[in-house]
């Protein structure tokens, strides 16, 4: 006889009837029964629901600070709603209505109304999509057909990976819990029955066996029995240490005896006055959720709307019976019937004509006036028998503002070629309609300890951002809440040289660095890639003595030349490695076999294995570590913390900061595994310089980094983002200047076309980090023709001169959250052009506009939008008025870079070989304009103020100053001075 779970413990029952003890509440706090609201800023409110009334005050791994300056607000109860109002937002919660969901918590800003919380509860007999529920360490994938909904939950590769569903038993008694899964050949190479642990309401789990299926497209069902009381429960499928995991789970269902597996999914409401995602509704017929066309809101869109298909929403909160505007966001390209013409859809049976769009990646809106009864009712978008042949993205119920992401992030750009559109990213903090929910419910405490399990009691902990168009306020709130982006040492903002090719200490000392010096190219960071290792060049743990006979001496030499160095690491170890026995002993025998040949991997959540891993680094002296391609199966089983974030924190302890991937899961799978997890991205920036991975050397890949850098920065708060300048993987086959041995065969390096190389270095000079890198490819200026060499040399020296300015911007980013590189809409949110130009130009700080050339040729052009104000070309002096467009041409020796009138650009006055304190600085200003800039130099600040024809310098001013004064006619003059008050007038 099977054992059955009793799921409502006595203590949980008592908590429902006994009063909760009074507890002191932080200031700026409003409590309403089991809900608590902390007003942190005018644009940020913490929303917390605790069914057991135990509110959490400890810092979490994401949220390290809740001490904000006092915020003025009002709270009152009106018509059964708690209403909290600040100068920027209004939050409404229906008193006594239980956990937060779409119909009981509402956010209003000046521009929109939203339901931040979406809570899907699966009642008996309803389909419970795994992707709609809480996930821990697993990702949503969709590559295997046969799943329902948007995809399935993939992986279960590590201990504590799991999915937890909230279910509601409609009656007490025995229930069947049925899971739809696939079990093909796993990443561990095995094709066998697998197991997971099943736990109900936090009780001790039982083991569930999921038999092998034919392949990953073969979906089957497995069931077990549970005893449930009527009401809500938490059902968790988790890989424990004793389980094998490595399965995909599509959905589950709570059923009574004889009930068939359902097809109707559980959904949350679409609240009146908000914009709702079509894919979150109930789909009928052949309609499915897709995501192949860019520009959609949410997680996808509803596609294949043909005759007999549709999407239904449960609309709640309609204030009174009446006719209301329903706004459909859609795409209407060439349909499956070959036609490109206006189509018809039915909204509650009313025929609506949907005009064509240019293609399937072009989205438009159409509005219908639809009668709705008061309260809650259904809204059905269906098709006539001839079919709709449109894709449906969002449904606005008396709301025309879809929740469209600004920017986004991914773990890496590995394998990106630039030939098939922009890289697909995951949305972050910033949206056009000005709100976001940072769900912190499942994140661990700050020390990595998981939160206390609350049994059957519901718990939610999330931060509602309501910033409208004030994106700087949003980024500032995020930085104050989760910690600002890492401020790196000043030298890290200089020039980096890296190449995946076999090098020796003698190569660097006798050939490479002398060439840098000879050709007048600066160098700050020397990156030593993986071939320096002994025993195994991929995952060895000693420096090869034939290549680096004196490791400490090599590092000392690096320092003596004014540079810093990093070593490349791959986190596994061969069983035959000379250090394996010691590592396994330190790990107390817990290192497990990985998926690579004869290799063992680490669970960094285990203190013994983490100690063994860290100790392997001790014999290899370096300034900091480059944690490269992840992760040969190594990872972390910590609950509530992404593995990337956890190991990056450990590397930051070793070397000051981590040079690593970010925003994801080490066990995401695949060389291009880019999927993020819901915890960790917000903490990641505290430790990490984000290395974005191995792109291809194409014009398209180069162009994509323009929008990607600023998009990741503004969506996550990350500022230090590092691309492979020049791309990693060769696509040209052009013969380079060096030779190397590959399995005994003599081969040549490859190179880029001269124009592509020069333009990529130009772009890199204005990125947060300038790191030349390649896979056995030439990336040094003297390896190219005269024009490309001169251009690259010029721009690498310019980058080095700009280090004081970029370091100051980085310090500002650390304090304020506003990143070094930012899209124009951060500074100019009211200008539509600021949103349309994100893929072609960006701002370096508030005062420098950069519009790289991304087309072949020794001369190129780009269309530039100039934000409000006046802008002066840094190289030519030409002046452009704001709110205008211009086509700007540039040969290889220049690029479109512009200075804002009233802004200041500070740089070293002379070229230097590496980062040094600048005794002479040049300040670019515009004649007649007013502005100021505070230079940051390792805890010292120098303020430069321009007012009319004079500049005032305060702080560390005992140095030579050179002011380049730009005039409206394109001319300029130079003023040199040492004093604190400097006349900027042109000499007579």
UniProtKB/TrEMBL annotation:
InterPro entries: CBM6 (IPR005084), Galactose-bd-like_sf (IPR008979), GH (IPR017853), Glyco_hydro_31_C (IPR048395), Glyco_hydro_31_TIM (IPR000322), Glyco_hydro_b (IPR013780), Glycosyl_Hydrolase_31 (IPR051816). Pfam families: CBM_35 (PF16990), Glyco_hydro_31_2nd (PF01055), Glyco_hydro_31_3rd (PF21365). Transmembrane segments: none annotated. CDD domains: CBM35_Lmo2446-like (cd04083). Residues 126-255, 274-398 form the CBM6 domain. It comes from the Bacteria. Keywords: Glycosidase, Hydrolase, Signal. Residues 1-24 form the signal peptide. Belongs to the glycosyl hydrolase 31 family. This is TIM-barrel domain-containing protein.
